[in-house]
Amino acid sequence: MSQLVAIGEPLIRLSPPAGRQIATADRLDSHVGGAACNVAVAAAGLGVDAAVAASVGAGPLADRIAATLRAHDVRPHLHRDPDGRVGCYWVEAVGSRRVHYDRADTPMATATPDELLARVDLDAAELVYVSGIVPALGEAAREAAPAIVEAARAAGCTTVVDANYRGRLWQPEAAAEAYAAMFAHADIIAIAARDAAAVLGHTGDAVSVAETLCAEYAATHAICTRGAAGAVAASADGSTATQAALDGPLRDPIGAGDAFVGAVCAALLADHAIDRALADGAAAAAVARATHGDLTPLSPAALTGVADAQIDR
Amino acid sequence: MSQLVAIGEPLIRLSPPAGRQIATADRLDSHVGGAACNVAVAAAGLGVDAAVAASVGAGPLADRIAATLRAHDVRPHLHRDPDGRVGCYWVEAVGSRRVHYDRADTPMATATPDELLARVDLDAAELVYVSGIVPALGEAAREAAPAIVEAARAAGCTTVVDANYRGRLWQPEAAAEAYAAMFAHADIIAIAARDAAAVLGHTGDAVSVAETLCAEYAATHAICTRGAAGAVAASADGSTATQAALDGPLRDPIGAGDAFVGAVCAALLADHAIDRALADGAAAAAVARATHGDLTPLSPAALTGVADAQIDR
Amino acid sequence: MSQLVAIGEPLIRLSPPAGRQIATADRLDSHVGGAACNVAVAAAGLGVDAAVAASVGAGPLADRIAATLRAHDVRPHLHRDPDGRVGCYWVEAVGSRRVHYDRADTPMATATPDELLARVDLDAAELVYVSGIVPALGEAAREAAPAIVEAARAAGCTTVVDANYRGRLWQPEAAAEAYAAMFAHADIIAIAARDAAAVLGHTGDAVSVAETLCAEYAATHAICTRGAAGAVAASADGSTATQAALDGPLRDPIGAGDAFVGAVCAALLADHAIDRALADGAAAAAVARATHGDLTPLSPAALTGVADAQIDR
Amino acid sequence: MSQLVAIGEPLIRLSPPAGRQIATADRLDSHVGGAACNVAVAAAGLGVDAAVAASVGAGPLADRIAATLRAHDVRPHLHRDPDGRVGCYWVEAVGSRRVHYDRADTPMATATPDELLARVDLDAAELVYVSGIVPALGEAAREAAPAIVEAARAAGCTTVVDANYRGRLWQPEAAAEAYAAMFAHADIIAIAARDAAAVLGHTGDAVSVAETLCAEYAATHAICTRGAAGAVAASADGSTATQAALDGPLRDPIGAGDAFVGAVCAALLADHAIDRALADGAAAAAVARATHGDLTPLSPAALTGVADAQIDR
Amino acid sequence: MSQLVAIGEPLIRLSPPAGRQIATADRLDSHVGGAACNVAVAAAGLGVDAAVAASVGAGPLADRIAATLRAHDVRPHLHRDPDGRVGCYWVEAVGSRRVHYDRADTPMATATPDELLARVDLDAAELVYVSGIVPALGEAAREAAPAIVEAARAAGCTTVVDANYRGRLWQPEAAAEAYAAMFAHADIIAIAARDAAAVLGHTGDAVSVAETLCAEYAATHAICTRGAAGAVAASADGSTATQAALDGPLRDPIGAGDAFVGAVCAALLADHAIDRALADGAAAAAVARATHGDLTPLSPAALTGVADAQIDR
Amino acid sequence: MSQLVAIGEPLIRLSPPAGRQIATADRLDSHVGGAACNVAVAAAGLGVDAAVAASVGAGPLADRIAATLRAHDVRPHLHRDPDGRVGCYWVEAVGSRRVHYDRADTPMATATPDELLARVDLDAAELVYVSGIVPALGEAAREAAPAIVEAARAAGCTTVVDANYRGRLWQPEAAAEAYAAMFAHADIIAIAARDAAAVLGHTGDAVSVAETLCAEYAATHAICTRGAAGAVAASADGSTATQAALDGPLRDPIGAGDAFVGAVCAALLADHAIDRALADGAAAAAVARATHGDLTPLSPAALTGVADAQIDR
């Protein structure tokens, strides 16, 4: 029944307040994150009927993931492995931001495409998002990720793949291979300019990266993001669109890229053009940077509020 | 016995920490606010014997208002309506700041001038401040507000009216009419340039707004504030004074305009000239922006501290 | 689609930590409560497909109610009145517990049966719970409450009415009349022995209260609760069942009675006998007293955990 | 203008939450305490026009003391020594409660009677309370304390002296001498049975302690407190009154004895008899034990609430 | 150089405040725990030169363990596996206490005796404690645990083994076998009566359990603990000693058994007799139950404080 | 055994969160600070075997200092005066930062060189740091400070003196005299440009200040810091080195200068050249400004992280 299904691993994030360190902090904030959750929550806030499909472990951490997704009006289609663990990650922001993963050997690393697709009603879904982190999780996942994108497209869904390169999880060569396999079935491709350079060797400017990927994989849109320098989309019709990043407070940037993608998906599902989608994405990213935690509860009013605040400055 | 009496509705403000949303926040900060409270507390911190006169509901929220005003050395001259409620407002600051009022049907909306003036010793007061929000609260309040200003001036008090337009409470036309009725008896008029344009249709620059209002209402001083662009005063003697805004951390801007007015009142009560008053106001506003909550506990040292910090930059 | 629909007003509860007072507390815990929410959340935790149907105001407080219910896997079937307010209540626990309501003039006070029933799919529901607080909210609500119970029974649902007398909201005479009108259509009646005495004049012991009500209203079960002294049920078949209260930490007793009722409903929906239902209710109430906030997230394991802990002592 | 003036040193108390230790706690609660403050705040909550007279240091800690007393509607009649420090004390409650004083060399230790009496309008006051801790603070204070009691009685005030023995501050012999000098001018004497034994050598039961002190010093009432065993008063008319301690949560017992004395003073100022005064004192102590911090904000309703809660059990 | 070396896995414990659940808690307390850490910290607080020897993973969680042990004056002799993870566990206390382990596949599960003994200077140590949890961690650990005890005794150290049965980690049969292997080289054996029954089948009273174990393994002392019913020791000289549990607040019982053992070790290292050791252990356990977190910072004064508080009641 | 021994007074710092005032804050953060502690902790984080030598009071505040230093792997060589107090200071940051000292009459003010040197193993130490705050603490300290520097150099240690002028503690003339006496025996001199001007009258640019001091006192390096404008070193070989300040978040600047000096010491102890030392110092200061509290837990990775983050901007 969901319009959008995001597939990827939900994670528990633990972090002390900015300016304090894990080694000496007595209290930690507990957030839910993971690219798929972030994308689905962003889209749901903008009116999309959204779900997350994943395999997770059992216990109170899985309960926390499910309860948090539901609170944001996202359906948790979770396979719960009673013997599995739930992936965690630890973040501290002092002089620079440091991330420590503890997500090895989770059920998502060994989930088969069938197990995951069993959680997805492809006939009902309009758009399926698969995070490029999935194939980094293990051998089985490396097989599963492109198979899922392929199956989703075959079922008539719009498919969205965001590369999301994580250098702590795998090497560029392996990632490049996996991305190629996923992009081959993707209608919409998203990648950071930095990752395009480091992983794919596309060292040109963002426009050329987007155009190259759009053409190479016959995608509908290829989006290249450049952080504070905004984003660019190249489309199958040969057009390109550019969007500046919006200003605003920087409290917690983690998840801003996923909020961008979630808002782009929501705009496209609402039949908006790609430039409106990028504009919504930029506003969503600004809200995300101003929001503690990975998840960004959006609303049309929140996007407008951020856009209007630009004018005031 | 109070030098300054501020008349306006005290409110309870509830807000999650910046970067968190009301919908998902388990903990909220509880502050006392409302323009009259803000002005009185700012003035009290600068040595003025100050009071707030208002009609409020009963129960622990009214206790909170009284205790907080007393803690800041402001006398709470409150009529407590045993059947009334206490106005609340809810604020969240994520991508942009959003305010949600829950202040309908409070005793202040129906208070008569006599009820409010019974809380004020006009013979003892030197300065009476009335917030331009009061007439927005209800029909009775719309009658009461100008009557109170008139009575205060008749009793020999310096009268101060700050427009404080709140678009969520009423329409510009109604506000324009009410402001005119109040300004007619005001010695000192304050208005934001933005509100002068939106409500009064004065779209000129701040100097011309101030000069026009000063002349139109035969005020001693008319002050036009421009946020980060500072403030301007036009005086009955034909002079104008300008004051830049001061730099400093932006933690919570709510109440900064009221701290400005409170410090201006304190300076004028101490027989300082209008340019010194504007300078004190600008420093007070900088402290207010750096202070959590609507109320700004000031001191002469705090004003100096902020002014000195400008030089360091 | 829901098995259980609970009808009653959702509330925002604001409270300082135990041992602190509202008048001087800078931070408040924000909880969602209200009898219908409490009952639905308790039942949902025990596997019931549950919903809350209500009319509420708009804004972030309504968002908080919806998000919180969803987090507990309860469907929020809320009519949102764009001009309405959301009821709040304030609690402090120092020497004794004190409750201050700010819930006048909410949409629930004027909702018609049709407006509320439009939120309920009576054909799908198995059990409809209506809180005895509803008729205390206003004239319209006093008409609506029994009409809803009647309609639910007519549609084939099991109907549950808990008296929940609130002395701050109305007088015993009015309550007695409203309870009679609701009990007339109720399959399951619940009332505290204290309220049965104060409102209905049933001053006998709990067994006689339950038997009298069961007979008078031809109910399937009438349950009379006695706080620390446990509960009694009288059934249409002439049997009575008694259940002792369970021991455990007392952190926040608000909502314990509703958790009891929610667990009883869950047990009956699972076709357990009334004595098992009372046992589950007693365990649920023990968890509720040990849980901060009105809502009690239950699970079969949590009930077992509390029951087992009795043995250890 | 104050009915009750309490003379004694205000202190800042710093303490981690119960169950945590100062050595490893990152966050501390900041409270205002000191017997005189505690007594005055308790009485003010019960409607007494109350003040604290003391000599303190300067800076933000003195501001905190003044703001806190005002918040509780107590007038801070403080002489601020610009070179003085403000006394602090540190409390942790783990297996047992431990107190660490850092209050040496405060202005109160060297204040003369004239300096302190200059802060008190003896003509206006009806009752003057002097803490038996004052003479423990230093040589000057040892002279000043009885002189103040004597002057207050000479001015027609009812004089109240509570022994409040602190073994960390002085020896029993010195305390006994100082108490004798103060009791000689006291209308109302209060002492814990434990201190009467340890300091004065009165090892009899509480009734005999109270009777002995009442007779020895020709007091109007002598009150002997016994913690959980309640309190006893012996009066000049030969009567004795006894009062049990009330039950309730134990969150923070510090200040309970002072709340007792403050409520007794309030009752006597309201012309209640000594047995009603003891009853109010017992209820006040129960609220104090349930309240975090030394200060206990009371109200007639709070006393009633605690007393009613006794019946429920 | 350390007198006491405790060998066992350090853990990070994450828990919401009592009365809140992991599924909905935004903030968690971060503690360091694990039986070896608990024992070493308890002993260090009583003046013992103590260390923990263990193999742990890398990253900020390992830093937290090291920093926390050092803060309590315990030397962290940690082998840090750069590819390993740090064991965590999650605790919530609502109706009953629930523990969720996430400690699979940690370096401690595969550490060899040589790797661990390389962290211990057996020539310098007087007492070596090995937790009975170690052999539950994996196959290698099951081999390593008794080998370490044997090596320590061979080096002339007093060896202490506490069974600490954890039903979530292994089955009684495996535990019984491992305990037998460890007890065979232990000078001091500790076991809960409950575990003696469930794992070893010793269903007699605590005295007989202690006597049986003392004889069976030719131990110097065998201690059988009974929770609220106190502890019993049987000694090689044929004597038995019994000790009641002490009263006090119950804030967080986790770690109380380890604090008991740590204090017993400290007393024996100070050449106190076994009855004094049990008394110190009981006082330490009372402090531990009143302290948040697993670790219990003790001091001789803290033991005395708890013991004295018994008399007051 | 320590490579680096820092001599200076440890302090407890108490501060409300930024944007709140001490007068109204119910909760305070408790930090450990003081220049010597800050320097030692910074160096220890970078791998130096570090200690703090000082004389302090007794009680839980001294325990806090010791535990905190140990947590950061710094040996607390503290003489504990059982009758002494522990220095505290109070900080609030609203419009500007305000510091209130409460550190009079601490044991450090009267400690003799012998008492302090008894805590230092000069034969083992490679580098001895003495804060220029020490001679401000009292007459004895004014004698002791240069004597300690002299003794350390005589023992073959590298001696480091940082002026650290504190205008609230003494006058420029006295400071100038004390600095001269200490600099005379210093191998490395550090001073802020602002203090060089205000105290020493060196109003030239930073390079000339450094060159002048280096020559005047025949130092190996003289370092002149200029806040946001970076730092300059003049060396005995006639060379000068300059280093820009690094960008980053400003959360709490207190202790940044000491982190700079600690990192410089660590670099020099690792035989790095002065320009690398200044670069490390600048990165350490950036981490310190982004870290809450005075102490800055550093690591080589943290320095790299900050330096890398510069490139991103």
The averaged pLDDT of chain A comes out at 95
Order of helices and strands of chain A, N to C?
A: EEEHEHEEEHHEHEHEHHEEEHHH
Percentage of residues in strands of chain A: 15-25%
The two chains with the largest interface, and their residue counts, are: A-E, 29 and 29 residues
- Quaternary structure of the protein: homohexamer
Structural class of chain A: alpha/beta
Gyration radius of chain A, rounded: 18 Å
**Strands of chain A, total number:** 13
Percent of residues in helices of chain A comes to 25-40%
User: How many helical stretches of chain A?
Assistant: 11
Q: Shape of chain A from CA axes?
A: globular
Contiguous uncertain segments of 5+ residues of chain A = none
N-C termini distance of chain A = 42 Å
